[in-house]
Amino acid sequence: MISAELAIPLALFLPLAGFIAIWLIGEKSPNLREAATLVTGAILFSLAVIVFAAVAGGARPDFELIEVIDGLPIAFQAEPLGAMFAVIASGLWIVNSVYSIGYMRGHGEEHQTRFYMCFAVAISAAMGVAFAANLFTLFIFYEVLTLSTFPLVTHYGDAKARNGGRIYLGVLMATSIGLLLPAIVWTYAITGTTDFVAGGIMAAHSEAVAPIAGVLMGLYAFGIGKAALMPVHPWLPNAMVAPTPVSAFLHAVAVVKAGVFSILKVAVYIFGVDFLHETGAGTPYMWIAGGSILLASAIAMNKDNLKARLAYSTVSQLSYVTLGAMLATQMGVMGGAMQIAAHALGKMTLFMCAGAIYVAHHKSLVSELRGLGRVMPFTFGAFFLGAMSIVGLPPMAGSWPKFFLMLGAADAGQLAIIAVLMISSILNVIYLLSIPVQAFYMKPAEDGAKPQGAENASIQWGNLKEAPILCLAPPMVTAAGAFLLFFFADPLYEFLTPLIGGQ
């Protein structure tokens, strides 16, 4: 049996071994190449589960790779938030890989070897972010994640992809180097460490930190650009030029989750919830997060392109996590942490459904989806469940984060934030649940018209024209996961209690 201490470095280096295997196999044997991806994913998930189980038992397994300079090691330690993130990212990478096989083959995509290679490097970086023991280590893997996903965003290589890629890379690198790195240096200069410590490291240096706490938190809030807090969000909708499996990966598996995960880690383990509450350093960014939630939802309502609508929905939903951190209450932090898991399942479901619709029927606009649920009932059924979770309706997982966030807002005496959450849910209903409703109940946009591309890419059962099974099964799995997580929220809550001072 592999120990949790050994599982951490293996989780970092195993995807790189998968990268080499994918590269060596290449286009010679697509089946073998994709088998290498799936086997790597299965082993990685097993390693993440080993670490998760150890953390659940109270252990904090760690591993130090190298000390670059005195006090700044590249080091790793598993705690509840990171262990949860690692399990989510590695588990959904398997689902995303299965979906990618169906999508890339069904859509006849080029450069598939490069596609799978970049995915392998990106998931390795995500594991580094998840298990980082300090800000220095987190920054290194945060940047590797940006660079390794850039070729995925620009996969098509046309002018639109190149422009989207420039915005993606430009915004994320500018915020991380221009804001996040100075925040880390400033933190180290004041405290002499960048380690993630239960209760935070700032309280011990309150005289030096308190006067500049709000400014420092601002550097982190906007420097962690992957959290997509407005106005540093444009990289996210522009990244939708990528193939749909990449969109699902960006929104559910690694990139945006690495962003909000980092925000929560900084709030809990660098500032400390109590210190944030006492100084009020997070209050301005709480309101910015609330504004982002509503503004992004309003923009999503006006987007006819399905992926663009889902992208702005993600900007809104990510801000729930930032909001939870900035509320600086125990329930706020718990709501933000649970939102990471619930949003991953719900939003991945929606993006994979969008890709399945495109593969089978070459439709990408919401206005084209009227009546399509009658020929794609499984896809739109999964979409309906994913949308319910994002909205926050029981019995779907997304209802719990909103419940805890409302409790956190009440604890903080922020009744206006409760109103923001309620209005956001109403907007979510309008721009998300309206899609399956019109797909199932409205008259088709073109009576009797044969969907373009369906004769080649879809599988047909009688009058049904669904996407290939490898595109259809994954969103059904994640939709089922969002349903099951609703009923298993209590074990997850207990696992995460150390974040809010539990034992």
UniProtKB/TrEMBL annotation:
Localization: Cell membrane; Membrane
Leader sequence residues: none
A Pfam family assignment: Proton_antipo_M
GO cellular component: plasma membrane
Main subcellular location: membrane
Keywords, in A-Z order: Cell membrane, Membrane, Transmembrane, Transmembrane helix
Membrane topology: Multi-pass membrane protein
Sequence intervals crossing the membrane: 6-26, 38-61, 81-103, 115-133, 139-156, 168-189, 209-229, 249-272, 284-301, 310-328, 340-360, 372-393, 413-433, 469-489
Record-annotated NADH:quinone oxidoreductase/Mrp antiporter transmembrane domain positions: 132-427
Family: Belongs to the CPA3 antiporters (TC 2.A.63) subunit D family.
Name of the protein this chain belongs to: Cation:proton antiporter
Source organism per UniProt: Hyphococcus luteus
